[in-house]
Amino acid sequence: METTPLETDTRRVDVKSRTVRRFTFRFDWRYRVAGKPFSVDAEHTFVEIDRPDAHEPGVFRARFGPWKIETSLDNVVATRVTGPYSVLKTIGPAHLSLADHGLTFATNNDCGVCITFKEPVPGIEPLGVLKHPALTVTVVDVEGLQDALDHLN
């Protein structure tokens, strides 16, 4: 199976006392083809950890084509590395688990990070009625994202 990592795994931008760390997604060629009609591509997929300063909690953001999640970093309570995944259950657009309402933003079937939230967050539909207790993302730097989120508290 061929995967294509993007040019950079993570990027840090420091503006005064603000740090934004961006994690890119790792694309398997099958997922790249299946995601194209949904704008799931390198330009429209990322995870960001935005830390304004030591006195504010900061923001967790994830984008997957038209799907977006944004919540306070204080709302992130746990992470775990997961995978491998079924291609049929993860390829293409964002996927909703019917078992637990978790959301998956997948660009490969190897591994990702499952992020659990204290308060469920909107994401799969534009009105925000359906909320998700967890989000799984298949970024290039799985361990780096897990480490960055686990060291928040």
Structure in a nutshell:
With 153 residues, this protein is mostly beta strands. The chain has helices at 29-35, 87-90, 142-150; strands at 3-4, 10-15, 18-23, 27-28, 45-51, 59-64, 67-72, 76-82, 95-96, 103-105, 112-122, 131-137.
Tell me what you see in this structure.
The chain is mainly beta. Helix content is 13%, strand content 42%. It contains three helices and twelve strands; from the N terminus they run ββββαββββαββββα. The strands form three sheets. Strands 2-3-5-6-7 form a five-stranded antiparallel sheet, with helices on one face. β5 and β6 form a beta hairpin. The N and C termini lie far apart (37 Å). The relative contact order is 0.20.
Radius of gyration: 15 Å
What is the arithmetic mean of pLDDT? 89
* SSE arrangement, N to C: EEEEHEEEEHEEEEH
State the low-pLDDT regions, or none. 1-8
Number of strands: 12
Q: Kindly estimate the percentage of residues that lie in beta strands according to DSSP.
A: 35-45%
Distance between the termini: 37 Å
Number of helices: 3
Class by alpha and beta content = mainly beta
Shape: globular
- In order across it, which strands form the biggest sheet? 2-3-5-6-7
Biggest beta sheet summary: 5 strands, antiparallel
> Share of helix among residues?
10-25%
